[in-house]
Design goal:
9-stranded mixed β-sheet, 2 domains, TIM Barrel, 4-stranded parallel β-sheet, alpha/beta, single chain, binds zinc ion, 18 helices, Urease, subunit C, domain 1
């Protein structure tokens, strides 16, 4: 095996079983795998050949896994910020004007922003997923990807979407190591019961996971309550939908008894710290973590939180949960890092090869600048990763052994072109939506954007 990269003189936060941190550490990568980790002096002697990357002043982490997002929504960045119930009043009306090409371009921009913010794997859920996969493979970001399936309410509904969601899994399974196809029913209130049951069966038969929104609004909770006389999580448990292969975004409007279902089933609630805080609806994430429930963290779309920056999301997870439960000890930095590395890797079925830095694991890692004004002197490494670093401190990103961000610049795409595309295609989409949706024009004026 020939050495491709030897990263030297870095602080390596391995997130391995022992949670080892290597100071003046080195990592040897060959093709898509990590071959060895150790002291820089030792690895330089053992592997004198190959390209070097100097990690002096850098902290290396396993690549972060953003457990809930919609990268293709980048063309709609921030449009719901000042609009209550923005999902229903803005996102879905705008979504009616989306083209497949909009999703491709949006995913390029969102995926690029995700990479530059330290995410090496997005767990993504959106329409026209074929176009999103086209974008992520071109960018070089790993994706757990599901084509959004809705039977009612949303901008794109119908039996054809159900079949496409299932076909997407069949087309992409085992085809590309960067694309892990999943099933993505939209939510409990937007997907018919018989469709949910069918998707549960297909997921089991194909060995793929299920990613959906659950109890994300009072509207969703009330609909399920009226129809079935129970809460959204109760309902999913009742129909036998829940399992360790289910990722459930938000889970905001649930009662304590519903939390029991997560404990019993091993399903994962997805916590979106900034989006939840902005909407004033805290998730009881720390309470669930303390019960042994596998909470994971995502950014959600940039419509609701304005950035695809997972490193920055982590500080909000810590501060929000401490404030929510009134406990200084809540949501410690190590637990936060676990949720976006090894816990998330386990949840997507890749815990034996992703989420830690160890020999034989896939070479997905990030390097943070830790030698600037913001990070020195450094008396508490993990505290400082969470509370002093931002996505803009991500210097280098490696996915599947390939350097996709180097010195803060994408290597796979021309960023200037992406900025130009965002400025051109975003307003064009909004213009089409305004022309076709009268209500939207009113909201736009109300929000002071006209
Ligand atoms: Zn979402």
């Amino acid at each position: 095996m020939s050495a491709k990269f030897l990263i030297t003189h870095a602080t390596v936060v391995t997130m391995n079983d022992a949670r080892d941190v290597l100071y003046d550490g080195a990592i040897l990568l060959s093709d898509e795998r990590i071959v060895a980790l150790g002291a820089t002096d030792d690895l330089l002697v053992q592997y004198p050949e190959g390209e070097r990357i100097d990690g002096t002043g850098k902290v290396i982490l396993p690549g972060l896994i953003n457990a809930h997002t919609h990268i293709a929504m980048s063309l709609q960045k921030g449009v719901t910020m000042s609009v209550p119930e923005g999902l229903y009043r803005v996102m879905w009306p705008v979504g009616k004007s989306l083209t497949p090409e909009d999703c491709y371009v949006g995913a390029l921009i969102g995926g690029a922003e995700a990479l530059k913010g330290g995410t090496t794997c997005v767990v993504d859920h959106y329409f026209h997923m074929e176009q999103v996969a086209r974008a992520t493979t071109e960018l070089g970001v790993r994706g757990v990807m599901g084509h959004t399936i809705m039977s009612r309410l949303g901008p794109i509904t119908g039996e054809r979407e159900l079949e496409e969601g299932i076909d997407f899994v069949k087309r992409w399974k085992g085809k590309d190591p960067l694309v892990i196809p999943w099933l993505a029913p939209h939510a409990t209130d937007t997907v018919a019961r018989d469709w949910l049951l069918r998707l549960r069966d297909v997921a089991t038969a194909e060995g793929v996971g299920l990613h959906l929104h659950v109890a994300q609004s009072p509207r969703e909770r009330d609909y399920i309550q009226e129809l079935y006389g129970m809460g959204c999580v109760d309902y999913l448990a009742d129909i036998g939908f829940l399992g360790p292969d289910v990722l459930a975004a938000h889970c905001l409007f649930i009662d304590t008894a519903e939390i029991d279902h997560f404990e019993a089933s091993g399903a994962h609630p997805l916590y979106c710290p900034m989006g939840h805080a902005l909407h004033g609806h805290p998730q009881r994430a720390w309470e669930m973590i303390q019960r042994g429930i596998g909470v994971l963290i995502g950014t959600d779309c940039v419509c609701t939180n304005n950035e695809m920056n997972l490193v920055s999301e982590l500080r909000i997870a810590g501060t929000s949960q401490k404030q929510l439960v009134g406990d200084f000890e809540a949501m410690p930095p190590l637990k936060i890092l676990e949720t976006v590395t090894r816990d998330a890797a386990d949840a997507i079925g890749m815990g034996d090869r992703l989420g830690s830095l160890a020999p034989g694991y896939l070479a997905d890692l990030i390097m943070l600048d830790f030698d600037g004004l913001h990070a020195v002197p450094n008396y508490g490494l993990l505290d400082n990763i969470i509370y002093t670093c931002h996505g803009r401190d991500v210097n280098t990103v490696i996915v599947h052994g390939k350097v996709v961000v180097r010195d803060h610049r994408l290597t796979t795409m021309d960023e200037g072109r992406l900025v130009a595309l965002a400025k051109e295609r975003g307003p064009a989409l909004i213009k089409r939506a305004l022309a076709s949706e009268e209500d939207l024009a009113y909201l736009w004026r109300e929000a002071g954007r006209s």
